[in-house]
Design goal:
3 copies of one chain form a homotrimer.
Chain A lengths: L16 H16 L12 E6 L5 H12 L3 E6 L7 E2 L12 E2 H11 L2 E5 L7 H5 L2 H10 L3 E3 L7 H13 L8 E6 L9 H12 L3 E5 L8 H4 L3 E2 L3 H5 L4 E5 L31 E3 L12 H4 L6 H20 L3
Parallel strand pairs in A: 1-2, 1-5, 3-4, 5-6, 7-8, 7-10, 8-9, 10-11
């Protein structure tokens, strides 16, 4: 059935369970044999545009591109002082040096694929929700665009997470997946939590989301999940527990709680003895998640990080089909 | 006749009409077939040294080198905290960490070709005019040097501009080319304007330069052009209109005008209905140039940007001949 | 005999004279023929992690990796805002975003070899001496690690220095090597001086170290050298004079002298007429070392810099043996 799925035009979000399963399977094939399609991308270039810093995402995307024989070129626009104008019709007599529509069009004419990271402001809810920066790149570049985390989603992370769940689940029934809020000292975007929810539900797993009151996520991403405010109840019989901080969505970008009792330790797993723990990294140890969990046998965090390479490779490989 | 032109030693300025025509023709060949000379630069390395930030220039040079099979290595010396000492005989007991003569010699021993961006200070006219930093790299590196914009010239941009003019001109007589000053809020270098004038005159086109009084460019670059202070008169019957801001040259580095009537809109083209508009990018929209021009059919700016790749490829390919 | 030496597990310090000689010989082979082992590293990736800035080290390591057919990926973690937590058990509720043990493990799973630069604080002597940051990368990455300069050593520089000495010594007896302190205005790490002493003694050369009182280096590195506080006496009959500033080791990180009479000029060589002068670069001219020496025939500094490529290539080639 995989052969009748249309190749991706862009990779910005969850599309369908068949598409998701196809990407997971392709990623696992590449994990076994990273150089399988070394010739597929020869002579093709992917531009990796970072409006925000990155380590794992940047390196895993570069490696994925190299595995496919492509030339990856990284542009740290945040660090390289290239402030983009976002407003249509703006009179650019202040700090911005280039309009996103011009920059996107040039980059679109230089590369075969663009991969872009653009975090939310966390101050303008509607602009963030519209994924404005990201959609401008899609609109003006004219070439396939891969999200390296947008204002609202982090689909490559979520694909890597689903690969990891599949690798660690041999049960016949659906796994019980729990997404739990963890404490943090900074206002953190919703993208990882949104995307994890979207993909976990989309892949037809059973999802429970737990967080302090006020931390409800955008329902666009969580519809179909069980919301349970009592963390200990949510964790009962969990197979996979995904830990992530996010700032409030309703009181947009606010920090409402730093309650350390939400940080998982072994004692939280009394009714979920075999549960595995996931986190997208970077993790603030002993704030978001305890040393004992991260250094113990429940942790899948390194496996998730490794799978980022093959998630990106499967996605880029799929995008290459249309070129 | 092209086959008797000597290969370039360095690429820092306009050399001759035959050399210019040879590079344009080679660039157009590469535009048709970017991988034509994929083996030519195999195993060769180009070091791209940025003392000032860059997006288009950096990426287009990297792509040009990759098209020729070379390994490009980028050094953002401005961002990476490597302050170079420029003064001969200096006692280096202040902020500079390495003398340009040592750095240039090392880079010259590491690479096969160096490409360098070094903006002017706009405060020391004679030092800027002598292209001091640039000439030190030429002197001490001992290898071919490509200008990625020096204090006084931006020849790769100008080559891309001439390629674009050739692509858009099928007339039998010389095209009428107009270089018009446009407003800006910052003090901008003269390099693009100087080089455009030098190349346009060198390629034997008809050039009119128009700007507010006081914005006269260095005559070294403009000798042979018509200087016309009335912009509307200058634009009459224009075939190509190149828009660029620059700061004053006589009152060196000063901003003398931000008169917004100099910004081109459709109403400026009543007597030049078929004129094409050019700009090197990045452009500050609605300050230097209006949305209606940039988004309309007169605009060649994206074509110019794309041609940067093939301009660089033609130049690097020529420099490889001597290695 | 070379064929019975075990391949390196990591490259962080001097190991043995046979290992040293093997690396020198291999480097000289690569200098003659850089592309000899172009296929050896194909498909392998080296991650070059800079916690501190670098020019020569970064480029020479990239070139060495390219010569071996590897893909080098550079991460300027200092500039890219990725503050690592170093303390075990820390509650990460301040500025650090990722624990070194997590970052090192991820990088270890992404690359085949890691190369790391991590300077000392010069404020915490015991932590610096333990090469803490460096040892954490060795411990948690699980892959071969190359030092690009640690808190205490700079072994790739020292290997390049020994290659340079061998290239310039045809005498039958041991050369007399002098390591002389030179003035500087900043507090400089001990790594280059430590390593040069360690390697010069390890390669069984005759070593005299001269410096103002109070600048004694850590005896761990200098045991076996002659310490001579009178610079002119130390220089007598020298064959090679290595110039380097370092801050005090006993009064840790302090600047005790900036006495300019310690800066070498031609007049210092009256009793060492054929002596060659070495420096690792970057050098502050006319502060650490005079123009007349650097620009004269005694200077080997450019040769040392060039040999950095082949030192790195020999080391990485050796590390590839175990993969």
């Amino acid at each position: 059935m995989a052969n009748i799925i249309q190749p991706l035009k862009h990779f910005t979000k969850f599309e369908s369970i068949t598409q998701g399963q196809k990407l997971i399977e392709q990623a696992l094939i590449y994990k076994e044999n990273p150089n399988l399609d070394k010739a597929k991308g020869a002579g093709k270039r992917i531009g990796c545009i970072f409006l925000n810093p990155s380590l794992r995402t940047r390196v895993s995307t570069q490696l994925a591109a190299l595995n496919l024989g492509m030339d990856p070129i990284v542009l740290n626009m945040d660090k390289e002082g290239w402030a983009l104008e976002m407003r249509d019709g703006a009179v650019m007599n202040l700090g911005t040096v280039e309009h996103i529509k011009d920059a996107a069009a040039v980059l679109g004419s230089y590369f075969d694929i663009l991969a872009i990271r653009a975090f939310p402001s966390l101050t303008n809810k509607e602009e963030d929700r519209s994924d404005f920066i990201f959609s401008q790149f899609v609109k003006y570049s004219g070439i396939p665009v891969v999200s390296l985390e947008s204002a609202t989603r982090h689909p490559l992370q979520s694909l890597a997470d689903q690969i990891t769940i599949q690798e660690n689940w041999s049960g016949k029934s659906k796994p019980k997946v729990v997404l739990t809020w963890g404490p943090h000292i900074k206002a953190i975007p919703h993208a990882v939590a949104n995307s994890f929810s979207e993909w976990t539900l989309g892949m037809d797993h059973d999802l429970t989301i737990t967080h302090p009151a006020g931390y409800e996520l955008d329902e666009e991403f969580t519809r179909g999940a069980t919301i349970e405010y009592d963390q200990s109840k949510a964790l009962e019989d969990a197979d996979f527990v995904y830990v992530k901080n996010w700032s409030a969505f309703n009181e947009y970008g606010k920090i409402l709680s730093t309650d350390s009792s939400w940080m998982l330790t072994e004692s939280h797993f009394q009714k979920a003895s075999t549960a595995k723990v996931m986190h997208c990294l970077p993790v603030r140890r002993n704030l978001e998640l305890s040393d004992e969990i991260l250094d113990g046998s429940r942790s899948l965090v390194q496996q998730q990080a490794k799978n980022r390479i093959f998630a990106a490779q499967a996605v880029i490989s799929d995008l290459l089909e249309q070129l």
